[in-house]
What does this fold into?
Amino acid sequence: MTGPAPLSTSRKRAVLITCCTAILISTMDSTIVNLALPTIGRELHASLSHLQWVVDGYTLTLASLLLLSGAIADRFGRRRVFQIGLTVFAAGSLLCSLAPNIEVLIAARFLQAVGGSMLNPVAMSIITVVFTDRVERARAIGVWGAVVGVSTAVGPIVGGTLIDSLGWRSIFWINLPICALALVLTAAVVPESRSASARRLDPIGQVLAVLVLATLVFALIERRPLLLLVTAAAFAALLWHENRHRAPFIDLRFFRSFPFSAATMTAIVAFAGFGAFLFTMSIYLQSTRQLSAVSAGLVYLPMALAVLVMSPLSGRLVGRYGARPSMVSAGTVMTVAAVLLALIGDDTPIPVVAAVMAVFGIGFGLVNAPITNAAVSGMPIDRAGAAAAVATTSRQIGISVGVALCGVLAGAALWSTVAVAMVGVIVLGVVSTGAAADRSLRRVAPLFDDDPVTRTEAVSDAR
It folds into this structure.
């Protein structure tokens, strides 16, 4: 593999800072926007389904375009696509802040997500190309993960302060100077890179995938069960097409690895719980319990700190003992948290609510590392990135489904459903790490032996 001309240590650090800036704004977006939903609902006279679309308009678009954005960046240049993503994300944020009604806000969220889809996967590709040494790359990815944790922790506090002091529109203003800084840094320090022989695009597969996700979420939010027939038909067509395409949008060979399939399902289920948690608790704390945005953010803080602490701990557990302990522990703790959330009422003491939220954060913090590890384990080196991208997409799909379910289920019914789903995570954690799973893993790598995908990288400009 060839890469950019050797960069100085300070230049590499500057590249890492630039990429981490992108993850900062995109990760904070989810927690901050959820915290602002009650205020947005009051000021824009929005219904519950409108508020669901404020969240799902973003996550659905993100899930639909993540894989496509990565492929386009490989073909046309990662720095170029990264810059476009920052620009579109900033433009979407500006439009969100100026939205005169809920319909315009939802449309602007779709645009914002188009830019967001070009940030995380492309930034990770840039890091992979720039940090060629295995140890250096591991450290860089560790910093990346720490930024995710920190942004998750500070998001509720920053968001609550902005909402209470400057109004909900300010949560989108904050993205503008950060995007501007990232654009300047990208132009100054990030080398251009692209694949020497990029894979062909799969527009039909892309359209079918969008149709599957859009009809599923729309059917849940708008309560149109008949639309699920369209979802099923589109999903069948997607499988048929992808199985025959020479360069599929989603490579179905990945799913012959049971650990990979289990990781994908775990990501969807766990993040569906997380999406439902963020959406429901924001409305509960501010609309039912009448807390201010700042106070609600403080109640979120124990959960966010639990995620911050448990995420790196889970990574170390996976490295030492494999995925099973973390997956089983995550499923168990999140099941307990869901049961406790089902018991919370209108008069439950706020410290008790915060403690239950912290329990949920412990479980959620444990689940990320084994998902990524199981997704890439056993995959050829040149396919590990694509496998990880599918896992990332699955996370966004999960959030979209979780928020959509909040319109169909509520209260104890919602959390009972989440609890049952988390028991599934425990089962997946056990069966996906056994002997049969290992055998399926060993059968996957040979499937890619004759794959035409290049293993080289070409850099056109390393200035």
